Amino acid sequence: MLLVWYDCCMRVRLSKKSLEILFNTVEAKYKRWVTIANKNKVSVRTLSDWRKGEISMPLLVFRKILADCDLKEEKVSFTILSDFWHTKDAGRKGAAAAMKLYGNFGTPEGRKLGGQRSIATHKKRQTAFKTLKPIAKPKHSKKLAELLGIFVGDGHLSDYQASVCTNSKTDKEHAMLTSKLIKSLFRVPVSLRELKNENTIIVVASSVSVVKFLNKQGMPQGNKLKNNLTVPGWIIKKRTYQKAFLRGLFDTDGCIYLDKHKINKKRYNHLGWAVTSYAEKLRKDVMEILANLGYSPTNRDTQKSVYLRKQKEIAKYFREIGTNNSKHLTRYRKFIKLTQ
User: Fold this and answer.
1) How many CB atoms lie within 10 A of CB 52?
2) Per-residue pLDDT tens for 153-195?
């Protein structure tokens, strides 16, 4: 099997006199060129080219013709061409053609011409290059700080998308606000994908540039908990940024609740404020920010939440920092009536 494949790859070149001897013998036996071509499973044109010496002949076919005509190899003069004998010549011709079209590749002018030709080809075929779409790169601001809080809470950065996943029944309005916030900051298209069977809505910005920007601003890419989730350093440096970040974080990972308890058979209702996270460093940062802003947060080592329990401080939070999630505001107004 290997020998047959080897013979098929190799070819022979005959002298002009040997070609006459070979094909005169073949013609004398088979009379018609069509018959000869069919017997060797080639076209008459190919047979004619072999006969004229314009192209070389496969070694296997050459030996088959010799055997069919009872012609010994000693009667003809031929040269066996080595495997890939033509590649050097073909490469030389190809290089010459490419240099004529694109210029000398070894010079700056040649590389420039090659690039220009390539761009023209892509434009003509409408294939274009895959380039990162430009985005607006916002400066540090309260809006950006709030968006970072949202992403630290419910966001995720993959290789190609920045997304925020939340509850479609209770937080749909906030998801729409998040979508508008991303659009206003980066000037990129943002989609809302609602998974009704899972009560989930996802805000998605499909932009590698947005992913890279948010990652550079302090939002971990991939698994947030494994990649040191914390409050970005630039946010800690300014009180207005701290407040905006807390608002974004609370709106996604926080809750307002009613703490009911009895003392001496008397029922009491107290408001509670909490932000939950399994990232220990993030909880510590939130504690420090709240303390810096004049609050008295609490947290135990066994707990995964940071709490505000003083009624005046919770009222202060909603008055000074506020919320952009109507769910929290509605619950706050409802529960505050029950504590009076």
Assistant:
1) 11
2) 999 999 999 999 999 999 999 999 999 999 999 999 999 999 8
